[in-house]
Write a structure and sequence with these properties.
By secondary structure, the chain is of the alpha/beta class. The protein has a domain at 71-152: Ribosomal Protein L15, Chain: K, domain 2. Helix content is 22%, strand content 10%. Helix 5 links the parallel strand 4 and strand 5 (150-152).
């Protein structure tokens, strides 16, 4: 009897199969450990991580535009000092005359809404017509009437 004729009493054990997929053993074709080997793994793009690290600006949410009035709908502010500078004593002030004197500009071919405020002093008698009562502040109306002028809606 020679060594190459000796038979084993117990046959070789097959190595244990791991994972799913038949012939794919050990890492089941995933090739790595940790997050990459788990089911349902999906790494975030690198740019997403950079974005997540940026500080949040509070108050800039999806509803911010609802509370802000668009620029073309906001009234143009005209102070009493501009009326003093651009109109003579006894002049009639209307929206058309404000555009004509280049105190205000037409926006997209339309007359803008105007709000007259009482900043400054008024010494000239001016007759404001064609403005809504809410378009003239109380202090501006008081100054115009004190100077001898008047404010009428039509």
């Amino acid at each position: 009897m020679q060594i190459h004729n000796i038979k084993r009493v117990h046959p070789n054990k097959e190595s244990r199969r791991v994972g799913r997929g038949g012939v794919h053993g050990k890492t089941s074709g995933r090739g790595t450990k940790g997050q990459n080997s788990r089911s349902g793994h999906r790494k975030r793009p690198e740019m997403r991580d950079i974005i997540k690290k940026l500080p949040k600006k509070r108050g800039y949410g999806k509803n911010r535009a609802r509370s802000v009035v668009p620029l073309d709908l906001r009234p143009v502010v005209v102070n009493v000092t501009l009326l003093e500078k651009n109109f003579e004593n006894g002049a009639s002030v209307t929206l058309a005359s404000l555009v004509e004197k280049k105190v205000i500009k037409a926006q997209k071919g339309k007359m803008p809404t105007v709000k007259i405020l009482g900043n400054g002093e008024l010494t000239k008698k001016l007759i404001l017509s064609g403005f809504r009562t809410s378009a003239v502040s109380a202090s501006a109306k008081a100054k115009i009437e004190k100077a001898g002028g008047s404010v009428s809606e039509k």
